Amino acid sequence: MPRKNFKNTRAKKDKNITKFTKSIIEVLFQNPNKPLNYKQIASALNLTNRIDTELLIKNINVLLADKKISEVERGKYKINATNDYMVGIADLTSSGSAYIVIDGLEQDVFVQKGKTRNALMGDTVRVYVYPKKNKTSTRTEGEIVEIIERNKTEFTGIFELGKEGKYGFVTMQNGNHDFFIPKEKINDAQPGEKVVVKLTNWPEGSNSPFGEITQVLGQPDVTDVEIHSILLEYDLPSEFPEEVEEEANNLDTSIDEAEVAKRRDMRSVPTFTIDPKDAKDFDDALSLRQLENGNWEVGVHIADVTHYVRPGTLIEQEAYKRATSVYLVDRVVPMLPEILSNVACSLRPNEDKYTFSGVFEMDDNAKIVKTWFGRTAIHSDRRFTYEEAQEIIEGKDGDFKDEILTLDRLAKTMRQKRMKYGAVNFDKVEVKFDLDQKHNPQGIFFKISKDSNKLIEEFMLLCNRKVSEFISLDKHGKENANTYIYRVHDDPNPDKLLDLKNFIRQFGYELEIGDRKTTINSMNKLLAEVKGKPEENMVETLAMRTMAKAKYTTENIGHYGLAFDYYTHFTSPIRRYPDMIAHRLLQDYLNGKKSPVAAVYEDKAKHSSTREKIAAEAERESIKYMQVKYMEQFVGQTFDAFITGVQDYGIFVEIPETRCEGLIRSRAMKGDYFVYDEKNHALVGKQTRVKYQLGSPVKIKVLNADLIKKQLDFELVDA
After folding, report:
1. Kindly report the CA angle at 480 between 478 and 483, in degrees rounded to 5?
2. Which residues form the S1 motif domain (predicted)?
3. Do the strands 69-73 and 76-79 form a parallel or antiparallel pair, or are they unpaired?
4. Which of 162, 202, 319, 696 is deepest in the core (most CB within 10 A)?
5. How far apart are CA 515 and CA 570, in angstroms?
């Protein structure tokens, strides 16, 4: 709805020609095998007056001309081949267009502005996919014909007061339409405040949804307000329902010797944890002892969450709903209540704990001789931070020095074998913030994976792989039909690999594409060659874009990036629901139970993958906000930077010292008109032929730090 003419809620005359097309398609979808005439369609739509009926007939003719429906008998109509209509999830852009993400379809369906109907971000929609205009056409396009299910009805945005205070708008930053707020539903919100708005209606012909303000969050430049807003926007509850907390607090979390007697008692074996210094949920521990035959017994001990969280309980239902803990910049939104995540299940030092363990006998070359899985009881003797363990690896004396050095040596041997076998060596740097007491960023630093991190990583990978093999293979190494939850990673897109190969040649690098091992070895060589170079981040980013997204499923296809034929998530049940599934199924198989029906677990796997994606998006949003907040102090200052992304509307540029990324709009680039060269990831001056290409160094000035849009605006500065 245009703000200057908000009263004009009726569609313009030329829009009437398609007023009922969406409704006609919906009616015909509901009757796929029964052709209907216009009277039957009118009756289904409760159209009774002559004008609407005449308009309905015109709309039917429009759909016939567009070949979306067919006249199968005289005056009777049927939806066209249903494979032209697909169901997917709407991903709206800030320009008003959308991409429809469809399961099983490699390429998203692009929907132009004006053809998105009244879809909102994340809605499940039915889209009509246009036939390809020609064989060389690369983009799949369509239009939304039906909203099947709303993703949600509450959103966050900035409130703005309309003309003379008679109405208001809530502006959105994530591609959704702005909401129109009638005066009586403003509910004391003040201009500029961050608010929660509830969708109440979307009248026919209106460009804006109607809403009601249900909560005022506060000023958007206050960190706590923005983080709270992110949690609400992504439907991430910061607190547990009272009844869930009560159930958790009433659990018996004491260690019972009768229960220990049912388990393998490993409390006397030297055991410790290695975690980040700010961690509270220690869900894995390692034990080590040398056997009489000279081999090493390594225990990978995982918190036995499913001992406490039983199927059918309120805690279980809440854990499934959340499916993952969420790690925002300044807080953790846990999957389990604190009494479990930080106390009962956390493998804290000097406390007996119930665990589910993989115990591996290996020789001095890290070759696995024997494997055992089962429930255990352990006693962690020491809690190490990664920094403390790293100091010991680098030569400092300390507790369990011999054990840590032995595990480090075995881990390095396993890693070397894994890389040789064809694992991808991505070592992405994580951006972290020094925060003050009000959670405002005072500095930025980078988390780099060192030997102590890789030590833990290797033994967790070992346990995840071996559990998966144990369940999926019989004693002769042949695949059985047991249902399990796998973490899979598909092969990379061959077209994207070829694009990467051609692009990096401009920088003097090569990528050999062949069989799996050849490609990965060449990729790892490339990633090693760019280390420390200005183009490192660019090449790593492009390489990662060639890769498929990892997901959970019961249909095993292996894990390409790790070079594992069988892989699961078993080692973090405090923070991941799929790990709880993995624990329960393993115990069922150890108890001799038959394989369950896969469909139930496939639904759980899909839900877990969806929640994982939502959590990752929320985490990225919190990082973007903190980066913009940190850069406010540098508005007007200049920095050396390099180009990290190129689009037709501008270039994205990153400052290496902070990893903060900003946008330089093409319309603001002086001296020429710049054209987008998609193939070479560049903007090229039409007259001067000046080229701004992915990876190129540039000098920039920080123009603006927009906390509401979580966006930095830069401008180019002459060197």
Report:
1. 145
2. 636-717
3. antiparallel
4. 319
5. 30
Three-class SS state of 470: helix
Query: Measured at the alpha carbon of residue 708, what is the angle toward residues 707 and 711, in degrees to the nearest 5?
Result: 60
What is the DSSP code (8-state) at residue 487?
E
Cα 203 to chain centroid, rounded: 33
pLDDT of residue 9: 40
Distance CA 89, CA 99 (A): 8
134 has a pLDDT exceeding 80 = no
Map tokens 């706590």 to a residue: 224
Please name which of 308, 474, 280, 475 lies closest in space to residue 375, comparing C-alpha atoms: 308
Geometric angle at alpha carbon 230, from 224 and 232, rounded to 5°: 105
Q: What is the DSSP string of 584-627?
A: HHHHHHHTTPPPPPHHHHHHHHHHHHHHHHHHHHHHHHHHHHHH
Tokens of 575: 């923070």
517: Cβ contacts below 8 Å, ≥ 6 apart: 421, 422
Residue type at 434 in one-letter notation: D
What does the pLDDT read at residue 83? 61
Reply yes or no on whether the pLDDT at 633 is more than 80. Answer: yes
Give alpha helix (H) positions in 323-450: 338, 386-393, 401-421
**Strand intervals (E) in 406-496:** 430-435, 441-447, 486-488
Write down all domains in the chain, each with its CATH number in brackets. 20-79 (1.10.10.10), 85-149 (2.40.50.690), 154-220 (2.40.50.700), 242-488+560-614 (no CATH), 635-716 (2.40.50.140)
DSSP 668: G
Q: What are φ and ψ of residue 312, in 5° steps?
A: 90, -15
Strand partners, 167: 182
Mean pLDDT of 460-477: 95
What is the β-pairing status of strands 154-161 and 264-265?
unpaired
Pairing of strands 382-385, 271-275: parallel
Q: Strand 141-149 vs strand 109-111: parallel, antiparallel, or unpaired?
A: parallel
pLDDT tens per residue across span 321-344: 999 999 999 999 999 999 999 999
Of the candidates 271, 404, 278, 411, the one whose C-alpha atom is nearest the C-alpha of residue 347 is: 271
Q: What is the pLDDT, as a whole number, of residue 719?
A: 55
Is 307 in a helix, a strand, or coil? helix
User: Based on the number of CB atoms within 10 Å of its own CB, is 165 exposed (0-12), middle (13-18) or buried (19 or more)?
Assistant: exposed
Name the most confidently modeled range: 213-217, 542-546, 640-644. Answer: 213-217
Instruction: Please give the full DSSP string across 187-236, using - where no structure is assigned.
Output: TT--TT-EEEEEEEE--TT-SS-EEEEEEEEE-TTSHHHHHHHHHHHTT-
pLDDT of residue 136: 59
Residue 11: its pLDDT value, please? 40
Q: How far is the first Cα of the chain from the last one, in angstroms, to the nearest whole number?
A: 45
Beta bridge partners of 664: 651
Q: What's the CA gap between 190 and 183, in Å, rounded?
A: 12
Model confidence at 425: pLDDT above 90: no
Evaluate whether 643 touches 664 at the Cβ level (below 8 Å).
no
3-state secondary structure of 680: coil
CA distance 41 to 47: 9
CA gap 336, 313 in Å, rounded: 13
In the predicted structure, residue 6 carries a pLDDT above the cut 50: no
